Amino acid sequence: MFDTGGSTQVGEVIATAFCELGRLDRDVDDAARIDLLRWLEELKSACAAAQAKLSADLDADRRAADAAAGVPKAQRGRGVGSEIALARRESTYRGGRLLGLATALVHEMPYTLKLLETGVLNEWRATLIVRETACLSRADRATVDRELCSLPSGVDGMGDRRLIAAVRAAVAALDPAAVVRRNAKAVSDRHVSVRPAPDTMTYVSALLPVREGVAVYATLRRDADSIVATGDERSRSQIMADLLVERVTGRSIATAAPITVNLVISDRTLFDAGAETAHVSGFGPVPAALARDWVKKVATDDSTAAHVELRRVYAHPGSGALTGLESKARCFPAGLARWINTRDQVCRTPWCDAPIRHVDHIEPRENGGPTTAENGAGLCEACNHAKQGAGWTAKPARTKKRAARHCYSFTTPSGHEYRSTAPRLPKPLLHWETEYYKLGADVPIDYWTLERASRNPRSSIEKVGWLRRLTEAPHPLASSAQLPPRKMR
């Protein structure tokens, strides 16, 4: 996934130390183990400080080069955060945060940086200090840095809460107006978000002003207590969750809200009790049994059957790769964009699992890149904007391997090359020369026949009653005794 653009003597020393840590002597007493844990933690902090210095230097040099090249000020340094994220195997969003931390420590908060170098602070607590002083001017921030961190004893022994309280007190004493402005800005940052939770659940979070947030919770709790008093068997927490859904969607919990949920599931999982996980767009993998139960309930519910739509996505049984599409349009048509979103699932940049926001040309359209599935990739907004920076290049990977998964490579301005391969889709029922699939007929169809049929939109494969077979009859998979002789190629 990553090719280095060069090495240095310092890098060789770090690599040697890395190997030595892998051979760490574990046959020591407990006191030595505690000492080693402390030293290794301090080493992690020192490494974080070194990374901060290197990140700040990279940003400064890149901005200077952009200025010399006449790049507008607003576009200077574009993509540096993404390069840092790739080097540290983090998401693009996280890379931008790390770059902001580095520039603040190196250019504005030398005492905090010194405590990070010596291991008094770890990277997270240094981040807390930088975050809580972000509302101050550069001079005031330096003052807080000097007051709190000029001596190790100033913050040594503080946990996260005590440290945040100390920094906020110093900020409020130095510039109360800045605190007021920060609170006013925080109100404008209110939003609602959703993220996956364990066991196919989700967290729906709302960032609200404290008054509104407390009012929402208190109202839900009050009404839940009233329902509990009537003898409802649900717990208070369950009732509060159900009330939230009902009041947001305007429907009772038993009534489905009119939305689209894209579920990618293989025919083996759907019809033959396969165990391969399905994938829900915007959430991630879903256990096979649960996905089958969802489809069956929706397909057999008369109130929602009219809203069920099944789209076939043909994947290679071996690699899980999708077939290609082509378009002459400059922008990706809705169907092709949906196809790429299904193939890529999340942002294609390595270590970035953000939702797809843009379907982007790998080779830019202005450079002659076609609007095809092969030249398209799903990216988050931050990664797409970083890719537009000077010095970034990308191209689809050319491969002779049959039905290979989509792959492309891109090179950053520093000369490092990264490769991105599309995730596997759920594999179809038929596997290479092992099973036969009967399309509602007495004659079994082997792999090659099915592959040819999948390429022909008018073939009998289009006439299969998928939902009818799911709800009315078991899947007619031929037993081993019924299989005809294999065709050798």
What do you see in this structure?
- The protein has 489 residues and is α+β, with helices and mostly antiparallel strands.
- The chain has helices at 9-22, 30-68, 80-87, 92-107, 110-118, 123-132, 138-149, 160-174, 176-188, 210-229, 236-249, 267-271, 288-300, 334-344, 381-387, 447-455, 466-472; strands at residues 2-3, 191-197, 201-207, 263-264, 278-280, 284-286, 326-327, 358-361, 371-372, 376-379, 393-396, 407-411, 417-421.
- A four-stranded antiparallel sheet has the order 1-13-12-11, with no helix packed on it. The chain has a three-stranded antiparallel sheet with strand order 4-5-6. The protein has a two-stranded antiparallel ribbon with strand order 2-3.
- β12 (407-411) and β13 form a beta hairpin.
- It is globular.
- The protein starts with a strand and ends in a 17-residue tail after the last helix.
- The relative contact order is 0.09.
Helix share of residues? 40-55%
Largest sheet: 4 strands, antiparallel
Head-to-tail CA distance between termini: 34 Å
Structural class: alpha+beta
Element order, helices and strands?
Answer: EHHHHHHHHHEEHHEHEEHEHEEEHEEEHH
Relative strand content: 5-15%
Radius of gyration: 28 Å
